[in-house]
Design goal:
With 100 residues, the protein is mostly helical. It is 62% helix and 0% strand.
Length: 100
């Protein structure tokens, strides 16, 4: 809201031009670059899945969703991370079904 030269009200105060805020590195944290995405995809292709991920995928195929959620929560620490991992592995299962 632009300030007026008034003493009272919503727009009170000396009129100034706002200085745009600079983006700090801490605010950019977690944003995935195209290079990082590519590197992770190559690593996943070469290395494959960890043993617990294979077990979770098997549980998802056998429609044991609750057991899979419990296992991932135990391994990853929080329910949010667990949900993300289940979503990721579920998408991988669907893609493999489409491919075959």
């Amino acid at each position: 809201m632009a300030r007026s030269n008034l003493r009272h009200g919503l727009n009170k105060g000396h009129p100034t031009t706002p200085i745009p805020k600079t983006v700090r590195p801490s605010q950019r944290k977690g944003i995935q670059s195209s290079r990082t995405k590519f590197v992770r995809s190559v690593v996943r292709e070469v290395v494959g899945f960890s043993p617990y991920e294979r077990r979770v995928m098997e549980l998802l195929r056998n429609s044991k969703d609750k057991k899979a959620r419990k296992l991932t929560k135990k391994r990853l620490g929080t329910l949010l991370r667990s949900k993300r991992k289940l979503e990721e592995l579920g998408n991988i299962i669907q893609e493999s079904r489409r491919a075959h």
